[in-house]
Amino acid sequence: MAVRTPRQVGEDVWKTRIEKVNAELVTLTYGSVVAQLCKDFRNDYVQVNEQLESMGYNIGIRLIEDFLARTNSERCRSFKDTAEMISKVGFKIFLNITPAILNWSQDNKQFSLIFDENPLADFVELPDDGKAVNELWYSNILCGVLRGALEMVQLQVEAEFVSDVLRGDDATEMKVTLVRVLEDEMPVGDE
Amino acid sequence: MPSAIRLLALMGRENNPLYVRSFDRDTDSDTDPDRFNSAKADLRYHFLAHIALDVFAARLPSKSADSDFGLLFVQDGIAIYGWMTNTGVKIVLGFSSGEVIGSEIRSIFRAIHFAYISLVCNAFYSVDERRPITSRKFDLSVCRIVEAWNGSAPAPAPPRMSTSTVGSARAAPAGENVTMTYGQSRSGTPVA
Amino acid sequence: MTIYSFWIFDRHCECIYHKDFKRPQRVLRPPTLASTTGDTKENAQQQQKRVVSSGGPPKGTGPLTVDDEAKLVFGVVFSLRNMVTKLAGDRESFFAFKTSKYKLHFFETQTNLRFVMVTDVRVEGIRPILEQIYAGLYVEYVVKNPLSPPEHPGGEGVNNELFSLGLDRFLTPLEIFE
């Protein structure tokens, strides 16, 4: 059997095995979560970012199981494969976008995802309080999702946004850095 | 060349002004940021918008399900057309009268309605009937719609809405415009 | 052909789900419990535990608690798996081993969830079944249950009705279930 590229896998799974849901529903749901968090934390956007990240983490550690169950994918050989998988399959099947992978670091442990479009941020205009534009990472949940999902497949990563069109930047960019590959856990007290 | 749009007003359900904007040109320059001087004309246009409200109220009892209120009245050389959404938000457009405007006008109402929907869909926008709209994004999209109409520039691409899905994401492949309920382009077939 | 037992171990090496099916030759079962074989499994397990707690740790051919058995099963599959990867490289995994009495099938996900099924020796190639249990039952009823905790210490969240029933409904009509 010919080896299928991540792009083919993504397209295929997206077409045949994913139930679709209305985009506005997702956008509005996420939007109201973020808006509510901003209200709850009295516009302390640093905390809102953290909160979104940790919500994402909790999603990620579950989502990865769904991802693996749907795609039947093999273990990635390198972090480069992982990046391809994230963009062409992961983002494809869950959000129907394929962010570009750019800016690989020398040691191949860091790359950037460039989001041409971001279904979470449709319609959004950040609050005009002079603070949100500098502090809030509106889509920060995605960072958490990646961190959680990758941790479950033994890759400890750090993910963070470095620019966002909502803030008036030219592109929306997320940096993903591999911290280390986790070892399998050993049974405790087993002799 | 259709008549130019000179006034756009959005009135809330409680007949409060949400957005009143004049598109009269002070200069011929397309780049002058102050090319739409609102201050001068504001008061007159507020009057027109409020007169329109009375016409809306008068016609409402006999109105069928349609949003289009058509020509409301002509005053001071400005033909006022109206459109009311199902949520009671009224869109008022003032054209420099003279030429008859066909059913194309519906498309521009739809485009503006869509701009309003996008505005309301912003999670940080609090749908407060009392507060006038202050959104840069809304300003921009309205401006684009009106300029496309007034100038010879092609109408703005139809915005996406409603038919897209997420997978959670949208179904339309990137770059493909989803056909949608709102905002047909001006040159498109008028909606029946 | 038949299935004897089914186990799930999480990435922390803990047994998070266990189910006994037909076990005609549970040789390690003490004679005092022979009368309870007709009872429900839970009952039998509880009784076993009670016997152990009163009678001290199992020795020799004494009763084997579910916990001890889980440790043994996990120990075996864990060492086998490690041995296989050491010998044949990271991408290699073992599928099953066989003794004269039973066959043990193993399936590990990339998230280090391990599915183990002990069956009759004649059962062949049930890896797809284990994969289906993972994709169709575990992911659907455990992972996607928003109220279940993300980790399952002591089997919390896994042992829910939907999953148990689903598992029964899925396995019973299979040929290997007999």
Automatic annotation (TrEMBL), chain A:
<dbReference type="InterPro" id="IPR024096">
    <property type="entry name" value="NO_sig/Golgi_transp_ligand-bd"/>
</dbReference>
<dbReference type="InterPro" id="IPR007194">
    <property type="entry name" value="TRAPP_component"/>
</dbReference>
<comment type="similarity">
    <text>Belongs to the TRAPP small subunits family. BET3 subfamily.</text>
</comment>
<keyword id="KW-0813">Transport</keyword>
<dbReference type="InterPro" id="IPR016721">
    <property type="entry name" value="Bet3"/>
</dbReference>
<keyword id="KW-0931">ER-Golgi transport</keyword>
<dbReference type="Pfam" id="PF04051">
    <property type="entry name" value="TRAPP"/>
</dbReference>
<keyword id="KW-0333">Golgi apparatus</keyword>
<protein>
    <recommendedName>
        <fullName>Trafficking protein particle complex subunit BET3</fullName>
    </recommendedName>
</protein>
<keyword id="KW-0256">Endoplasmic reticulum</keyword>
TrEMBL record, chain B:
<comment type="similarity">
    <text>Belongs to the TRAPP small subunits family. Sedlin subfamily.</text>
</comment>
<protein>
    <recommendedName>
        <fullName>Trafficking protein particle complex subunit 2-like protein</fullName>
    </recommendedName>
</protein>
<dbReference type="InterPro" id="IPR006722">
    <property type="entry name" value="Sedlin"/>
</dbReference>
<dbReference type="Pfam" id="PF04628">
    <property type="entry name" value="Sedlin_N"/>
</dbReference>
<dbReference type="InterPro" id="IPR011012">
    <property type="entry name" value="Longin-like_dom_sf"/>
</dbReference>
<feature type="region of interest" description="Disordered">
    <location>
        <begin position="153"/>
        <end position="172"/>
    </location>
</feature>
<dbReference type="InterPro" id="IPR044760">
    <property type="entry name" value="TRAPPC2L"/>
</dbReference>
Automatic annotation (TrEMBL), chain C:
<keyword id="KW-0931">ER-Golgi transport</keyword>
<keyword id="KW-0256">Endoplasmic reticulum</keyword>
<keyword id="KW-0813">Transport</keyword>
<feature type="region of interest" description="Disordered">
    <location>
        <begin position="29"/>
        <end position="64"/>
    </location>
</feature>
<dbReference type="InterPro" id="IPR011012">
    <property type="entry name" value="Longin-like_dom_sf"/>
</dbReference>
<feature type="compositionally biased region" description="Polar residues">
    <location>
        <begin position="33"/>
        <end position="51"/>
    </location>
</feature>
<comment type="subunit">
    <text>Part of the multisubunit transport protein particle (TRAPP) complex.</text>
</comment>
<protein>
    <recommendedName>
        <fullName>Trafficking protein particle complex subunit</fullName>
    </recommendedName>
</protein>
<dbReference type="InterPro" id="IPR007233">
    <property type="entry name" value="TRAPPC"/>
</dbReference>
<keyword id="KW-0333">Golgi apparatus</keyword>
<dbReference type="Pfam" id="PF04099">
    <property type="entry name" value="Sybindin"/>
</dbReference>
<comment type="similarity">
    <text>Belongs to the TRAPP small subunits family. BET5 subfamily.</text>
</comment>
